[in-house]
Every structure is written in structure tokens, then in C-alpha cells.
Amino acid sequence: MGTKLIIDTDPGVDDAFAIALAARSDEVELLGVTTVFGNVSLAATTRNALRVLALCGRDDVPVAAGADRPLVHPQPRRASHIHGHDGLSGRSAALPEPGREPGPGGAVSLLASLISAASEPVTIAPIGPLTNIALLLAVHPELKAGIDRIVIMGGGLGGGNSTAMAEFNIWSDPEAARRVLVEEDVPTVLVPLDLTLRCAVEAGWLAKLGATGPVGAALHALTPDYLEAYRKVLGWDGMAVHDAVAVAEAISPGILRTESFPIDVDCSAGPGRGATLVDRRPPGARGVGEGEVAGARADIAVDTDLDGLRAFLFDRLSRP
Known about the structure:
With about 325 residues, the protein is α/β, with parallel strands linked by helices. The chain has one domain: Alpha-Beta Complex (Inosine-uridine Nucleoside N-ribohydrolase, Chain A). It contains 13 helices and eleven strands. The strands form two sheets. A nine-stranded mixed β-sheet has the order 3-2-1-4-5-6-11-9-10, with helices on both faces. Strands 7-8 form a two-stranded antiparallel sheet. Strand 1, helix 1 and strand 2 form a beta-alpha-beta unit. The longest helix is centred in the N-terminal third of the chain and has 14 residues. It is globular. The two termini are about 20 Å apart. The relative contact order is 0.16. The mean pLDDT is about 95. This is Nucleoside hydrolase. Keywords: Glycosidase, Hydrolase. GO terms for molecular function: hydrolase activity. Pfam families: IU_nuc_hydro.
């Protein structure tokens, strides 16, 4: 078995694709799924995660519910205008009803127990707000050695989608994001909007996926409203699969090309709140003192073979 993986998620249409990708990839041992508030309420994100795992025949994967609000300030806005009132474009009935409830003890407890029990360091893929991961690192600093990488979908180098500066996952809990990205020393990969939008898939790609079998058909059935929203964003007939891009990197390290940069997160109350501040200037051009970002660094995903990535996603999501 390959990479040991835990997904922390707030499903979400693209989260559903990401969970299915991991659940159907032989290269990964999916140890668990934890849920967090985000696109919709915690109750809805948890139910959706259980539905997607049931669709994939993976009721063996433990699920635990985590934070239902940010660390400090209330979440400004959910993303039901993109993902629908239930998180799945109002079409959650396209997925099977789960025959189980989330496990007891909560997300941080499950994360800690899975990392402690693993025979080798674990990859965590947070594809929602980073609240659960910040809490894990705060409560269990002794477990950092058991984490190989944290592969995060979030942030934007050239701007955001929730505000002019901030991407939704980071904006939903900037204090948690700063704890994970800046204040800790666990290796992190940040997969930002700039790349995930370039990795968007065409409506024809989705239709072909829908014809491959029950899983592809169910995933395709979730997309009409999400696709309509992204036609306006992209300017063409397609949609972003943000979270699946990050999970692809978690499954297959190096499928995305990364570069290391200094990083900080804006936690102010001003218009830049939630922005990821990534200093991409050449080292010799970086100033010292005022205006300098924090000393932390992250590997930022900046490029990929777009056709190769889409083929990777299609291959795994279409497997019988």
C-alpha cells in the first residue's frame, strides 16, 4: 500500500470528487476522513462525506466530525450559493444514504489516533477551512513527527474568490490557517486557486465520466448548478475541481510542480483579511523589516501537466 492519507473536508461538490479520487486510488491507503464547517454546516458536510464514501463502497473508512466554527471570529459566509443548500447542488439524493453515523470522539481525536497508530508518517489533505488541523497541532504537538506532509487546497497568489484578496478556505478561518502555515514547522504544500482554476475540466469531460459507471454517473449528477456557477467564472463550459487537484498531489507526490516561498496569512480586520501573502520575489530582492512576510516557508504548487492531471483524475474516478 502506498501513501497513508487522511482527508479533512467540507463537502462540497469538488470535495466529493476529491474523496472519491482517494477512495478509488490503489496508490493510497485512506486511513480516515474528518469533517469541518465550510461550504455548508458541519452536519451537512459530515453527511455528505459519509454519502460519498458509501457511493465508493468504502464504509471501512472511519469518519469523525470536527469544528463547527472558526477559532476566533464567526465565519463570514458559507458557499451555498456555489454548492447548493446541501453542499451538493441540491442533489445529494443522487448519492446513497449512509448506513452509519460518524464515529465518537470527534475529528481531532480521530486524527491523533490514526497518526499515532500509523507505521509510517501520514499525509493530511485539508481541503476545507484549517480549523481541525490547527487544533490538532495545538493539542498534540508531539504528533508532528508522525506527519509526512500537509497538502492544503487554499489561498491565492493573484487574488481570491471570496474577496478580492482571499480564497474561501483560508478566509473562513485565517487564524487557523496562519497557525498551520506560519506558526508550525510541519512540511506543507499549498495548492492555490491560481493553479486549480487552470486545472478546470470541460463539460464534455464530465459527461464522459458520467458514462463510465455508477460512481462517475453519481458524481456527474452533482455538477449542474456548480457547472453553471463556474461557466461565469471561467468564461467557458467547464468547472473547477479545486480539491481533487490537491488530493492528486497527496496521492502522487510531484504530480504538481512546487516552489518554496516565504508565506504569511493576513489575520487583520481589514480588506486583506484571509489573504495568503506569498513572497515570490527573488531572494536578493526581498527587503528586511517593514513589509517583510513571516519567516515561514511553504511549497506552493505553481504548475502541472494539465492534460496529464486530468487523465490521472479521470482514470481513477472511472475505475469499476
